[in-house]
Amino acid sequence: MESLIRRRMQSLKKLTDNGKKTISIIQLQGYVQNVSFKFEESANVVELARLKNLNLPTDYIEFLSISNGMFLFYTEISGFPMGYASEVYSIDKVIAERKALPKSFNNMIPIMHIRDVGDMYINEEQRRLGKPYLTYWIEVNI
User: Can you tell which superkingdom this protein's organism belongs to (predicted)?
Assistant: First the structure.
């Protein structure tokens, strides 16, 4: 049986004609907005092997095998481009972002950036313990 992630990605690709067409979504404030997505080429076995030592969740590895990174929710407001609201990192970006992290983040694997929020990480220690492992780093200025 086909996995949920594969079915959802195939549906989104079909609905958007592989990212060429926009779709309408209802925002939290209740208004309708047209958004688009940018899919990347799928990662091959050699590229995926570069992540082997990170012990990533199988659904994330499967996502990368479908689209090696992705840009989500491109929007325009009153004709002004706002860009993409989220970026799911490619293999190269995961590796580059991880190398740039301070040592205090040694258990974190950056996987995504969300505009106005920041980066999303996989907390390796939490994952090993079988606990919820997705987290954000929120900087608080007091």
Answer: Bacteria
